[in-house]
Each structure stands twice: as structure tokens, then as C-alpha cells.
Specification:
The chain has 500 residues and is of the alpha/beta class. Helices cover 37% and strands 20% of the residues. The protein has 2 domains: 272 residues, Aldehyde Dehydrogenase, Chain A, domain 1, CATH 3.40.605; 185 residues, Aldehyde Dehydrogenase, Chain A, domain 2 (3-Layer(aba) Sandwich). The strands form 7 sheets. A 7-stranded mixed β-sheet has the order 12-15-16-11-10-18-19, with helices on both faces. β5, α5 and β6 form a beta-alpha-beta unit. It is globular and about 80 Å long. Bound molecules: 2-aminohexanedioic acid (UN1). The site of 2-aminohexanedioic acid has 11 residues, from loops.
């Protein structure tokens, strides 16, 4: 299919994707595939007011009924999986299987949220006073602003939207300027679900805003948007987080990662190599969970590097629509410039570089393609401690597990981590309080490709937010503690006497 067919199959009409000021390019070949109309920042107050009005109605709809809307969204996503997956490939450059996988992640979170819609419960707590009962109730918060990044252009919205909706909140979504088309197509899918759902869903429940920082800033600044969920760079989160906090809003931040794998002497190296290659070069190294640092025991270090350089040399790089391709394009030229600059910095710090060259032969003209880079480092330098959103894997050696864990933790980010070992003591030490300091810590599996069900997010500069699984729903609700007195007395807690 050519670009126009993919856009059409995803339900985008010529009128919707032309005549505007925002040019959207496909990373596959750099072609401009749309000119979109941007949201006028001056319209943001009205848009937010619509969301507030929707909230007043939606919060009174019973949660299991709200779950029905998300169930329908899941059904519509199943029907649209191929078309939306192909559009993710076109707009974000992901290989076909990963484009489809992203839509599957949307379906999975819908299923999760439907179940959750019947499980929004709080505790009952024993009261110290006779004839009293204590409990906690979870209530909706209000409009949730979702700011998402190019690399998971639709799944991250769905993580937030599926939970926010069952929790009783409207959603306003600001996608990356690089990937607004997949957002528009997702909204069309949502609209089909809303239509089937019927009148219980108020107008303005799910809104989309297209444009640059000004529209995002309007969401971040508004006290009428009590929750901001922002995914992207640590730099972006460092601006958004304090602004939301200054107006007493709540933010859910999912920012940079600098994810490591420790490979111990007992590791199954065949499995480790497969995990390393997928997590380091999958999505062309553009996942926040991508493997960026390999900490290998010195006894297996040389063997591992040898196996990896061989595996890297065999990886098909090119058009992500071709079934055999494993490494698609980087999102844009700026991304390759940054990758090349970081490789040079690592080299100047003593790094031994394998691969990492631009690829221009056998790839679509106009796209930005690279060989993944493997860089042997004698130490964890400043360059290694920085997140570069590209397929660079730094390899370091270690002698003791303590040293490996210290290296793993000695970066500003704290998203994902893992260890390959068949030694129970090592595995459990890695997962213990003195082990990995990340939000995600795995054993014998890579750091990327987390499934729906577990809470997703991390510590330190990763921002501390948790999304999608476990009790992440609590981030979209306010907790109310209730004490009910069914006695005819009015005893005070802590035995305080106040007689008059
Ligand atoms: C991201 O890169 O922003 O665990 C999210 C993973 C995916 C999500 C990544 N399920 O790699």
C-alpha cells in the first residue's frame, strides 16, 4: 500500500489531512503525508470548559457502565488493528509487527480497564470508637490531560484514557507533533465506540488537540485539568512537573530511561543475546525501555561482544513495511545527528565502536537509517549516563555483583533493568531492596516490551509516575476517607474530652 492508501484505510479523509500548517512526515522516506489544521491556543479555555462539563455528567455514570464504553473501544480497536498498525508504521516508522503490537497493547489495556471498572474499591478500617465505621471511597478527579510522545504514539494514550474513563474522568489528548495522524485515527475509533455506547457519554468526553508547545502549555497551566499525564524526555518533564505542582495539580510522569542488563557468568548466553538484540535495536532503540547499557561479567564479556557483533551484522535494516526488516528508520535527521554526536563523544572517552554508521544503500530514499552501535567502554562515563534515543548499546565489564548493581544504579534515570543469571542468590539480590533502583526489574528477560498488567514507570529522573497496570488507576482518582457514626454518642478520637 502506498502512503495515501494507508491514510485512507485508517479513515482519514483528504479534507482532514490537507490545507493546514502542521506538516507531517513519514520517517520511512521523509515524504510529507499531511498538512494538518492546528488547534488555536485561544480555543483551549473553551475546550477545557467542555471537558469540565463532560466531567459533571460522566462522574455520575456507574463505573461498570463506564467500563462498557472501554469494552466497545477494545472491540473497535480489534476491528481496526491492521489499519491502525499500518498507520503507526507509516507515521512512527515502526516495523509492521511492532506497529501491530502497539495496537495489541491498546486492546490489552482496554480489557484490563473493563475488569477494573468492577473493581474500584477501597478499604474498610476498624474504628477505635464504638458504633463507628471507617472506610475509603475513590472518586473521579476531573479532566485528565495526556501528553504523549512519538515513539508509542497511540498505546500511551490508551493506557491513560482507558483507566481515566473507567475512573470517571474525561480526557484531553495532546499527541506529539510528529505523530498526530495516528492520534486522529484513534479518535475516530473512539468515536465509533462512543456512538455505539449511546447517550450516557457526554459530548466532549474525549478530545484531541493538535499542535505545538502552546496547546500543551494551556493544559499544563489550567487548574481545570487536575491530572496531567506526560510521557517524553526528562527535559520536558522537568518543565511540566514543577508547573503542575505549582498549581497543586497532580502529574503522572513517564520520562527518560537508561536501562541496563547485567549478564552474570551463569547466564544462558543464547537467550541473553536474543534479549539484548531485541531490546537494544527493536524500535530502532527508540523505546523509553530500550536497552542502553550492558554490564557483562568479565569472564563472558569477550564472548558476548563477539556474539553480539555477529548478530548485529545480520540484522536487516530498511523499509519497516517489509516483512523481513527488523530495524526501521529513526524518527528524523536530528535524531541521527544526536546519535552520531554521542558516538563521537563516547569514542573520545575511549570507547571502541562497532557499527553505528548511517545507512543509505538498500533503504528507502529520504528516510534516516542507521546501523545499531555497540560501544565497549572501560568506564561508565558522562556520555553513557545520558539517554540517547537511538540504537546505541554501551558495554561495560564487572567482577562482582555488588559492582554490577552499583554501575546499574549509578545513572540519573530509573526506568527498567534486568539480570541474566541462573543463580538464585544473584537474581534475588538484584530484586531486593539493595538491588536495582528501577521501577521495573526483570530476571532472564530484557528491559523492554513490558506487558499490560504490571504498573509501568520508574524512579529518579524517570519521574516516579506509574501507568497502565496494577493499582495505577489510583493516580486518576481522589481518595476520600469516611468515618460514619451509627451510635448515639459522640466520642472523640485519641480519648480527647471536650465537655461543655
Ligand atoms: C515507551 O517507550 O514510552 O515496555 C513505552 C515497553 C512497552 C512500552 C514502552 N510496552 O517497551
Amino acid at each position: 500500500m502506498d502512503h495515501a492508501d494507508i491514510l485512507k484505510a485508517a479513515g482519514l479523509t483528504a479534507a482532514e489531512i490537507s490545507g493546514g500548517t502542521l506538516a507531517v512526515r513519514s520517517p520511512i522516506d521523509g515524504a510529507v503525508v499531511a498538512h494538518l489544521h492546528e488547534t488555536d491556543p485561544a480555543d483551549m479555555p473553551a475546550l477545557i470548559a467542555r471537558s469540565q462539563a463532560a466531567f459533571k455528567a460522566w462522574r455520575t455514570v456507574p463505573a461498570p457502565r463506564r467500563g462498557e464504553l472501554v469494552r466497545l473501544l477494545g472491540e473497535e480497536l480489534r476491528a481496526a488493528k491492521d489499519a491502525l498498525g499500518a498507520l503507526v508504521t507509516l507515521e512512527a516508522g515502526k516495523i509492521t509487527s511492532e506497529g501491530l503490537g502497539e495496537v495489541q497493547e491498546m486492546i490489552d489495556i482496554c480489557d484490563f480497564a473493563v475488569g477494573l471498572s468492577r473493581q474500584i474499591y477501597g478499604l474498610t478500617i476498624a474504628s477505635e470508637r464504638p458504633g463507628h465505621r471507617m472506610m475509603e471511597t475513590w472518586h473521579p478527579m476531573g479532566p485528565v490531560g495526556v501528553i504523549s510522545a512519538f515513539n508509542f504514539p497511540v498505546a500511551v494514550w490508551s493506557w491513560n484514557a482507558a483507566l481515566a474513563l473507567v475512573c470517571g474522568n474525561p480526557v484531553i489528548w495532546k499527541p506529539s507533533e510528529k505523530t498526530p495522524l495516528t492520534a486522529m485515527a484513534s479518535m475516530k475509533i473512539m468515536e465509533r465506540a462512543l456512538k455505539r455506547f449511546g447517550d450516557d457519554a457526554p459530548e466532549g468526553l474525549c478530545q484531541l488537540v493538535i499542535g505545538g508547545p502552546a496547546v500543551g502549555e494551556a493544559l499544563v497551566a489550567s487548574t481545570e485539568v487536575p491530572v496531567i499525564s506526560a510521557t517524553g524526555s526528562t527535559r520536558m518533564g522537568g518543565i511540566v512537573g514543577p508547573k503542575v505542582a505549582a498549581r497543586w495539580g497532580r502529574s503522572i510522569l513517564e520520562l527518560g530511561g537508561n536501562n541496563a542488563m547485567i549478564v552474570a557468568p551463569s547466564a544462558d548466553l543464547d537467550m541473553a543475546v536474543r534479549a539484548i538484540v531485541f531490546s537494544a535495536v527493536g524500535t530502532a532503540g527508540q523505546r523509553c525501555t530500550s536497552l542502553r547499557r550492558l554490564i557483562a561479567h568479565r569472564s563472558i564479556h569477550a564472548d558476548l561482544v563477539d556474539r553480539l557483533t555477529k548478530a548485529y551484522a545480520s540484522l536487516p535494516i530498511g523499509d519497516p513495511r517489509t516483512g523481513s526488516t527488523l530495524i526501521g528508520p529513526l524518527v528524523d535527521q536530528a535524531s541521527r545527528d544526536k546519535m552520531m554526536a554521542q558516538i563521537e563523544k563516547a569514542r573520545s572517552e575511549g570507547g571502541v565502536v562497532h557499527g553505528g554508521r548511517p545507512v543509505t544503500e538498500g533503504v528507502p530514499h529520504g528516510g534516516v537509517y542507521v546501523e545499531p552501535a555497540l560501544i565497549e567502554m572501560a568506564a561508565q562515563t558522562d556520555t553513557v549516563r545520558e539517554e540517547t534515543f537511538a540504537p546505541i548499546l554501551y558495554v561495560m565489564g564487572y567482577d562482582t555483583l555488588d559492582e554490577a548493581i552499583a554501575l546499574q544504579n549509578d545513572v540519573p534515570q530509573g526506568l527498567s533493568s534486568c539480570i541474566f543469571t541462573l543463580n538464585l542468590r544473584e537474581a534475588e539480590t538484584f530484586l531486593s531492596a539493595g538491588g536495582s533502583d528501577c521501577g521495573i526489574a526483570n530476571v532472564n528477560i530484557g528491559p523492554s516490551g513490558a506487558e499490560i498488567g504490571g504498573a509501568f514507570g520508574g524512579e529518579k529522573e524517570t519521574g516516579g509516575g506509574r501507568e497502565s497496570g496494577s493499582d495505577a488507576w489510583k493516580g486518576y482518582m481522589r481518595r476520600q476517607t469516611n468515618t460514619i457514626n451509627y451510635s448515639a454518642q459522640l466520642p472523640l478520637a485519641q480519648g480527647v474530652r471536650f465537655e461543655f
